[in-house]
Design a protein that fits this description.
single chain; 91 residues; mainly alpha; 0% strand
Length: 91
């Protein structure tokens, strides 16, 4: 499973396995973190786009390799782009 993790995910897993995480016991903090997590993955708008057949096939192939639906992959890539977290490997 860890062979499919990116560097950040590997570091988080390693930190968790070293028991470096502290449980949140304050109910107001728990509620705040739950709301933040829910809003992070909230998908409340629908968008239709036109892309080339080849691009769609490549997206579907990549999603299959990653083990997730292609629309989820597209949403993730767009989210990373607009939040400035999408990086160019060649740069």
């Amino acid at each position: 499973m860890s062979k499919h993790l990116n560097q950040e995910e590997k570091e988080l897993l390693e930190s968790y396995e070293k028991d470096e995480w502290i449980s949140v016991s304050n109910p107001s903090d728990t509620a705040r973190y739950k709301a933040a997590a829910k809003n992070t993955f909230k998908k409340d708008k629908r968008v239709n786009i036109r892309i080339s057949e080849l691009d769609l096939e490549l997206l579907q192939e990549r999603a299959l390799i990653e083990g997730l639906p292609y629309q989820t992959l597209m949403s993730s890539v767009l989210h990373k782009y607009v939040t400035g977290r999408l990086t160019d490997k060649s740069a």
